[in-house]
């Protein structure tokens, strides 16, 4: 196996936003790494490029395994699990950043481990540190040696240099220097630690399994191991689970939370619980809202599989137009068309999706998709639907126009590659060649996630920077590299769908 | 790579019927093997254990590649495709037979190749030869040496011994000796040949791609390469495609066709066209018929993913009960949990499916599944749904009770492992612990596939042996091994749901 | 792993003759395949491309494993050995033919297996069948289907068509149709069978291990398992070993034996016993003979490692010139520089051999090599020695000029690539740029192997066709392809070193 | 690929001393990594467990590759070399330490890399740092985070914390803190750096290739790339090669050199030049000295292959007893009998060596081996020779008794496992069951390496701690762990052969 892997480059893989990470940890069960493997398998949708697990056993110390590829392929065999003994373990799944200059190396795969004077600690992280470059420069000047190109490694080095006498306090020291979005799962020999940044941008939940404690990005990972969902880790909270129980600390200056609204739209698994409701129900509500805002006469409501499905069901229920599977997904598509022939690469979306020709012919079709990023896939799907003889194609998008890159742990294209950054709704409709195209309004999205009065523009309830350009934390590294934040006034004109 | 592979043994894999093969061939395009790889990828649902491709090029002769695993992993790279040059190629995907005494060897993977005095031919086959054992004994006595344990190899040896001077005529000779169900794609240096048995049990379709001809198990494989669906190969037809065009022969005694009705229920892909209609529409019609026959008061109609989905949509549309995704399938489950730890193996169905807890709680749920084989998965799903707090669970099965094994190319358990062979509908309901359970009637199924008057018991329109025990071809090898066919009268009593 | 492998193509690999096979079998021990694996490991020098083992166990039938690469890498793990149970097993190691049009496929790797009406048999073979093409054509015309491109498969098909009622008799039938050189090890469920062609061209020896019987290409494979060398299988003998003991048959017309004299020069391992003496001793005697025939004044006698070593020691002992290791072989060179960079491929012989510069500088060196084939390696070695500052370089070759290809199981270049087919001894010396070069005479070689009066030209005691062009069996397939045998008279002039 | 590998455990692998490393670097050629790969291939005898290469290219920065296994298998393909562009590169081969508590991880494989404020540097090392534990503790307390368990990583961290403004000066700072034996090859973006510890325990040589500079553990690696041997790097020298030329620094307090005398006996390749003479000649001289000190009447002198060969030739030349290959080494034995069956593992030395039975029978044999470590292999060889019918077996060992572990980069067993630490010469002879056994005296060894008056006991010319227990640098980490150095007086009694 190569020590590094080129990010996959199929055309249709470019045309979606990707969560960069999922984290999971458990303390208090024998063979903790088995539970972590199962939890990571349930979180695989948050990252498919690589995964890692670290465990600790009093006799055999800290052990780790890191692999490119799926959890099921790398972390479910006895052979691997036996190398990861102990009653405390954490793990991580990672998505490939599409804009990175070189392929991911196995040393970039989390969790990261550091040996401190008082013992070792391992740490994994979902999110993005927006001042990582500055921190890294400073640490190198003082003699720290980085193992990886990962921003998260800064946290370990900051901890190593702290003068605090215990690891959680060193972590507090370190995290106070860090800007951005982070949901962290960390461990020492005797502690499982979860931390969420003060804004709570990324999710992190706490669960119980008998006497054991579990921390995860999402609740769906509790279900697979039979753990009970206790509560969310609160924004700004550092929670320490040991055999004795739970301790909470709040090391940061309090701020009003800004949870990522896109977790509702796309990232989280539909069977996870967010805000007391299943994500599926929220998405169905999004579809209903979309139908109310943008009705159309049609014969069928079809989802773009699989992410558009719940919203399409909601659209159908609200509009009364029958729901149907007009596009069939080949369930054997994986990320592993490694270096296909030119001819096969060019097939693009047809390797993955096929139109249900006999069903679609002569029909007026409402196509429900979760978002439009570059628009390349949407355009091809529209062509396939028309080739199959559809009479009309109406796009209904279950989110506002994605016009701004995310700097908080979601892999987005550069701004100039985002279709909605440069085109109005009508222009996008023309670009895709559709009969109509409508985005959900930002207020509509807020209503669907439970904010009856829509967005509070004075003090927004969520991080919606990808739609609004309103960044709750200034992305300092990116600004240093030339990214220009704009004033709300200028923005308004460019993203008319808001 | 091992030369053989143990069939996968996850508990939830035992509890479904599996198609054993898909076939695909093309003549008249450069790099024919690329098209075959794409076609096989589209037919992957018909067999995931292994695949093979043979091509012919005037300069480099016949070449072949055979691999365990998915088409996308083995047959899409330039490295492999370049070893398969030429303008004519055929391929095959294969399912593992669950009852075989030893693991599949790579030499058992089709297509098979034979060098005859007038040149070589390769052949692949979907179906099952019911007199293979007797033929094999006879051939060995006359000095034939078998390479594989596959029944299909008999055809090649019968062809080798024919006195005819051309390969299609040798194939006619050979196939007249063969009993059972077979849809064959074969090739010589200059011909692509398709054959369907006289009953037409398995599907086979003919398509065009510019000047090239294509033969496939299903039409969905035409869509991926942009080929046009011309017509079905007729039952009993041997069709020869060359650069000059198409020639049809009918070498068998004519019989009334008996197409496999289960292809409509489960095997074929929903976007394939069978009988002039998409399989999806037929399954939606099955769901409607099921709702008419077996209505129930409930809050939600949920499919068992993914095969129950179209019927669940039909049930919802007919009954007016809202459709919802109450069970979420982990899209990263594959066949590759190879030798997992005991603990992980025991997770069984939870590795694959999770209940949408927040949605299901307190609801009366109609669960629509395509069939019940052993019932093991159904039972676990019912438990998961109840654990999540559902108030009632009503199973609605989109086919009649599966009470008889198939001998025509479908991998079914021995009769005593089939739940419906030993239990009545009520007993099955009690066994699963459901609040109610209803199968679709055999007449209802016939109506849904377009036979307005239901089954013609005097002369059934389909092969429905798995439901009725009415085998259109006597399975001679199995009878020799002790299988007892029963009279319709005795059968009636045992399978009350008919 | 690929199903086929390109033959290695390092320049220095072209410049030697290669044995094509080693065979080994055992009956009467539990886990017979372990013994076969060890025996094949000891015979690895006879073939490194691939190996195979077949075993038979009453409960689990015939089993086989075939792999490209070394025995130690493929056949020594419990995982593999457990798939090969039983008390009788045979095996084979194979060399890649350098002139084959396409890479070896795994299906070409022996032993071959055939299922006959009275049970199965497996067979492996060292040698070459000189009328294989004609036999193959005839068999195909009668309906046999070949699995491989191997000549040896003919034997299995001829056996399948025999009307005899037991397998050894069918083998007699088959072998009477076969021309060429063959040392065969075969097995049925209860018998281990060894056969040597009437001329006894290739070696085959019989051994005992307690109550078990062992058959091998060479005695060195008896030593590794602790078996006792009983006797050679005689030319023309078919020996059958069962639990009851040994039975000998002589199915062929008796002929005067012509054992391959090159086995003494190069192929056999130095610790094997041939003709009652260790091969090492024979090679030392060859070196002594060479020193007597071709003395020279010099400071050091150095072998070309490793095959020239025993003859160099003999030369030193006879001449009194000190023996020294002037060329050091890198023991980590393998056959596995797979697709090296252009630059590394061009290093050629330097990857494998290095001159002991400090030792050689200013010395007159006698370089002893076993033979000269294409001369490419010899030329490079001479350059390296001179670069290191040697004062004189005298080649002494421990065999006569190799001027004719072998058709009896040794991989030789086409005649026009053999240096000695086109150049006289003096021309070769000039070509290599040496100060002198002398071959051993054919009579000298005969004396060294124990024929005090040298070669009996009326009725030669050995097969020496590679030196003399005197082929004891006409190579009919090659003649059909245009190879011209010459009269001894014409030959004499071309190969003056005789 | 596993991220770590269990050290090989064949019985006969335990019974030798193993060099732990070879280093190689080049600056000033395009594709420097190709030259490093070739150099490492030539140094493979110094370490077979794993290898690594780092290169630097202005456009693509620092790149590295690390692999378990042979250089030829991992670093010779275009695929790998292309990932290592640039005109400066260094590399390392590593032997597995047999006493390490856990398998080597890939992160322990050198070269190590560190990013400093003024740019990156990579470093690899042959030797052992005897105060590494203390240094590591200190560094961790100050916030350094170690990537590996390798002692060499300390150097990188000490460099990172230095306040010097350029990398060579930082290296001087770091190395002044380090105790033990080290021959280092390091690189920056524009410099190739070699350093040898003040005692010069391990070898390091400087060469030229046109305008390029090369540094290597041994001269044999110059030959393979055609480089010219310029001189040894001097003990205590830090040499910096750039495109402009060579700069020498001497950062350490001067000491009298103590080169490892065992490099002459065993570690270095026979074609390398040490002290102006080929190692082969020194070994031949050792054999002559051994014959003079310990003559015996016999028929044959046989080496234990392959390391005993030059000394056996020397013994033969001095004694007049003919040299012969009485033991034949199977050249296809590798380190890759991975997890063989129990039965095969028990074969032990027979998998690797076979006695030339026909040659040995009835003879009086002098067996020359380079050293006796645990004696397990010697004992088995003696048994094999006797089984073959030898009349007498006389061991002559080409070095003094190995009675003390090495702490300077050679992998030796714990003292209580060293046969000569607990037995006298006569006891060892009895233990092996030989007719006689004699070691070379320490003075004899000194004479053979060119010290006409033998060892200067007041101020020994070499490091001979493994024979004498006279450690030139106190092994502080080992002393901390309980190792007891003894006074020369007490030692004398225990190791009588001195």
UniProtKB/TrEMBL annotation, chains A, B, C, D:
Class of this enzyme: transferase
BP-aspect Gene Ontology terms: 'de novo' IMP biosynthetic process; purine nucleobase biosynthetic process
Reaction(s) the record says it catalyses: 5-phospho-beta-D-ribosylamine + L-glutamate + diphosphate = 5-phospho-alpha-D-ribose 1-diphosphate + L-glutamine + H2O
Active site residues according to the UniProt entry: 21
Gene Ontology molecular function terms on file: 4 iron, 4 sulfur cluster binding; amidophosphoribosyltransferase activity; magnesium ion binding
Domain Glutamine amidotransferase type-2: 21-244
Enzyme Commission designation: 2.4.2.14
Keywords on record: 4Fe-4S, Glutamine amidotransferase, Glycosyltransferase, Iron, Iron-sulfur, Magnesium, Metal-binding, Purine biosynthesis, Transferase
Gene3D superfamilies to which the protein is assigned, alphabetical: 3.40.50.2020, Glutamine Phosphoribosylpyrophosphate, subunit 1, domain 1
Pathway: Purine metabolism; IMP biosynthesis via de novo pathway; N(1)-(5-phospho-D-ribosyl)glycinamide from 5-phospho-alpha-D-ribose 1-diphosphate: step 1/2
Entries under Pfam families matching the protein: GATase_6
Family: In the C-terminal section; belongs to the purine/pyrimidine phosphoribosyltransferase family.
Function: Catalyzes the formation of phosphoribosylamine from phosphoribosylpyrophosphate (PRPP) and glutamine.
UniProt cross-references to HAMAP family, sorted A to Z: PurF (MF_01931)
Descriptive protein name: Amidophosphoribosyltransferase
């Amino acid at each position: 196996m190569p020590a590094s892997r080129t990010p996959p480059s199929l055309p249709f893989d470019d045309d979606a936003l990707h969560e960069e990470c999922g984290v999971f940890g458990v303390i208090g069960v024998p063979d903790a790494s088995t539970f972590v493997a199962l939890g990571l398998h349930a979180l695989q949708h948050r990252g498919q490029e690589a995964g890692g697990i670290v465990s600790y056993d009093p006799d055999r110390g800290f052990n780790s395994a890191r692999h490119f590829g799926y959890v099921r392929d790398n972390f479910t065999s006895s052979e691997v699990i036996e190398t990861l003994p102990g009653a405390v373990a954490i793990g991580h799944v990672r998505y490939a950043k599409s804009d990175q200059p070189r392929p991911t190396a196995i040393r970039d795969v989390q969790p990261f481990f550091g040996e401190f004077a008082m013992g070792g600690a391992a740490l994994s992280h979902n999110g993005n540190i927006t001042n990582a470059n500055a921190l890294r420069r400073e640490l190198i000047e003082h003699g720290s040696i980085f193992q990886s190109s990962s921003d998260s490694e800064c946290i370990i080095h900051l901890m190593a240099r702290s003068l605090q006498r215990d690891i959680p306090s060193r972590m507090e020291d370190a995290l106070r220097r860090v800007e951005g979005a982070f949901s962290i799962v960390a461990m020492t020999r005797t502690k499982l630690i979860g931390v969420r940044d003060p804004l709570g941008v990324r999710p992190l939940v706490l669960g119980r399994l008998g006497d054991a404690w579990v921390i995860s990005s999402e609740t769906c990972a509790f279900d697979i191991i039979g753990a009970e969902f206790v509560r969310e880790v609160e924004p700004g909270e550092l929670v320490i689970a040991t055999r004795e129980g739970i301790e909470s600390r709040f090391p940061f200056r309090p701020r009003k939370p800004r949870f990522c609204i896109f977790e509702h739209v796309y990232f989280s698994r539909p069977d996870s619980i967010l805000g007391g409701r299943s994500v599926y129900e929220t998405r169905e509500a999004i579809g209903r809202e979309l139908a109310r805002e943008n009705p159309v006469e049609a014969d069928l409501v079809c989802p773009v599989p699989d992410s558009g499905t719940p919203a399409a069901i909601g659209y159908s229920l609200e509009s009364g137009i029958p729901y149907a599977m007009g596009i069939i997904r080949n369930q054997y598509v994986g990320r592993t068309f490694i270096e296909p022939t030119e001819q096969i690469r060019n097939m693009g979306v047809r390797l993955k999706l096929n139109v249900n020709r006999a069903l679609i012919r002569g029909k007026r079709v409402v196509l429900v998709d979760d978002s439009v990023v570059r628009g390349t896939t949407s355009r091809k799907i529209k062509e396939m639907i028309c080739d199959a003889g559809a009479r009309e194609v109406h796009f209904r998008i279950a989110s506002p126009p994605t016009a701004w890159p995310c700097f908080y742990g979601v892999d987005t294209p550069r701004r100039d590659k985002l279709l909605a950054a440069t085109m109005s709704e009508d222009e996008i409709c023309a670009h895709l060649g559709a009969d109509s195209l409508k985005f959900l309004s930002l207020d509509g999205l807020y209503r669907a996630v439970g904010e009856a009065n829509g967005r509070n523009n004075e003090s927004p309830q969520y991080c919606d920077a990808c739609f609004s350009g309103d960044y709750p934390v200034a992305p300092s590294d990116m600004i240093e590299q030339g990214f220009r934040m704009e004033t709300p006034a200028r923005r308004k004109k460019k993203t008319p769908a808001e």
